[in-house]
Amino acid sequence: MSKAEERALEKYPLMSNDDKEGLEALKYIGVECECASVFNEAQEAKQAYFIEGYHQAEKDLELSWKDISDILDVTDAIANDDSMEERLKTMSEEEYCQEVLKRFYS
User: What value does the mean pLDDT take over residues 70-83?
Assistant: First the structure.
C-alpha cells in the first residue's frame, strides 16, 4: 500500500458490514445507510480523489534539475561569502542546510 493510499484510508476509513454501532452513529449525524457497502462506496470515492490530489501534490513539489542547479549556486554563494567565513566553521549541518533553504526560497 502506498503512502497516499495509507493516508486516504486514515482520512476516509471503511466500515465492516457487522459494524452496527458505526451505522447507528452515521444515522445519528444524518447519514442514512442500511449497510456498510453504501457508506464504503462513498468513502472509496473520497479516497480516490484524495490519492489523486496527493499524487498531484507530489508532482508539483518534485525538485527539477533546475532546482538542483539553483541549490548548487546557493551553496557556492555561501562558500564564497566572506561574511559567512567564521560562521561556517561553527555551523552544524542542520544550520547550514537551513541557510541553504532560506537562500534557495528567497
Answer: 93
Query: Which residue has 547550514 as its cell numbers?
Result: 96
| 8 Å CB contact between 12 and 43 | yes
pLDDT at 77: 93
Please name which of 17, 8, 12 lies closest in space to residue 37, comparing C-alpha atoms: 17
pLDDT at position 27:
66
Q: Alpha-carbon distance 5 to 49, whole Å?
A: 11
Count of helices and strands (H, E) across the chain: 6, 0
What DSSP state is assigned to residue 34? S
pTM of the model: 0.59
Type and span of the H or E element at 82? none
- CA torsion, points 51, 52, 53, 57, in degrees to nearest 10? 100
